[in-house]
Amino acid sequence: MNAAQGRVLDLFAGPGGWSEGMRLLGQRDTGIEIDAAACATRTAAGHTTIRADVAAYPTAPFCGKVTGLAGSAPCQPFSAAGHHGGNDDMDLCHQGLDDLARGHDTRTALRAACTDPRSLLVVEPLRYALDLRPEWIALEQVPAVAPLFAHTANILHSLGYSAWTGVLNAADYGVAQTRRRAFLLASRHRSAAPPEPTHSKDAGADTLFGPALKPWVTMADALGWGYTQRPAPTVTGGGTRTGGAEPFGNASRKAMRAAMDNPGHWAWKRPAYTVSGTVGHVGGKQTAGHLNLEPDEGARLQSFRDGYPFQGNKGQRSLQIGNAVPPLLAAAALRRLVPAALEVAA
Description:
Layout: E1 8-11, H1 17-24, E2 30-33, H2 36-45, E3 48-51, E4 68-71, H3 85-88, H4 90-101, H5 107-113, H6 124-132, E5 136-141, H7 146-158, E6 162-169, E7 180-187, E8 199-200, E9 214-215, H8 219-223, H9 253-260, E10 281-284, E11 289-292, H10 295-301, H11 314-323, H12 327-334
Helix pairs in contact: 1-12, 4-5, 4-7
């Protein structure tokens, strides 16, 4: 594959969350991803992919050929479910951003000094942005990375970009989970701003100024539950160094199922909690336990289209699903940035 083929470059591309969001807008991208199972998923889904380490890959093949840059660096160092190595490394990440902005590449030395070497991956999008100067940039991460996004935005401002940073709730954009993620949106030609919500917890009624927002999509609606179907509470985990499950205790499956089969239960009234990379399980403090979850259920809660061809064993598929940006949220974030975006049906 020609490395410079795509006009939109997706860093840490995973199984294709950003790619599917761009597909909803009539766009295509080229993703850089190191994980073999995620690359296989992208290929099966028809997304152009370079299997490589984002931190080691040269930017030269893309110079003058990239109009958009998207990316979601690995969240494990900064995740609330992980070992919080990213918290210890925050100052080193800020230094990495400043050094790159000054034209000094100190990544190797800084990475060696990090508690978790993956922390420094959060500076990679700036390296690509400085070298490629794309028309627009869209980045996503866990909320703990917001200070680094603000720092990156200040650097982009100095280069002539309009930039916005903030935290978005996926449920406000039609995703069946209350997933909160930090975003950085920047453009050289448009005013960067957060996307307008399409859904609301309290949708209200139509007014003289326009129609009411749609109500949040509930977990039960997204999964098409019937009273006899197996329930699926929160998808969690993936925050540990090994990508394993979060340390939540087991609960009685019989008791949990009885609760979830009750139409008065919260899952019939609201979205799921955050979906992340638990290997084959769902759970969390909100549900006081965890149950087995099929990958296709997690994918639906993440707003991937039905039948999306996730590759690998069950654990690999679950990890890809939980770590991806939800396609509906990606499309919402991109809609104001992508030139002449042609929205098509999901």
